[in-house]
């Protein structure tokens, strides 16, 4: 099960910098997670200031 970034994303990039496999990229000012690459480690959720990454 992968994480997904919800609409609360403020586009700060903290999650992308924390992802150990580079599964997070920017798209139109928000960040998205490639579900096929996500390890479900939760590192992104732990660093996000608004709690946008959520487990699916």
Automatic annotation (TrEMBL):
Q: Name one GO molecular function term.
A: metal ion binding
Could you state one GO cellular component term attached to this entry? cytoplasm
Pfam families to which the protein is assigned, alphabetical:
Fer4_7 (PF12838)
Q: Which InterPro entries match?
A: 4Fe4S_Fe-S-bd (IPR017896), 4Fe4S_Fe_S_CS (IPR017900), PSI_iron-sulfur_center (IPR050157)
Keywords (alphabetical) are: 4Fe-4S, Electron transport, Iron, Iron-sulfur, Metal-binding, Repeat, Transport
4Fe-4S ferredoxin-type domain location:
1-29, 30-56
Presence of the UniProt keyword Ribonucleoprotein in the record: no
- Keyword Acyltransferase among record annotations: no
Cofactor(s) recorded for this entry are: [4Fe-4S] cluster
| SUPFAM superfamilies assigned to the protein according to its UniProt record, in alphabetical order | 4Fe-4S ferredoxins (SSF54862)
Domain of life, per UniProt, equals Bacteria
Q: What does this protein do?
A: Ferredoxins are iron-sulfur proteins that transfer electrons in a wide variety of metabolic reactions.
**Under what name is this protein listed?**
Ferredoxin
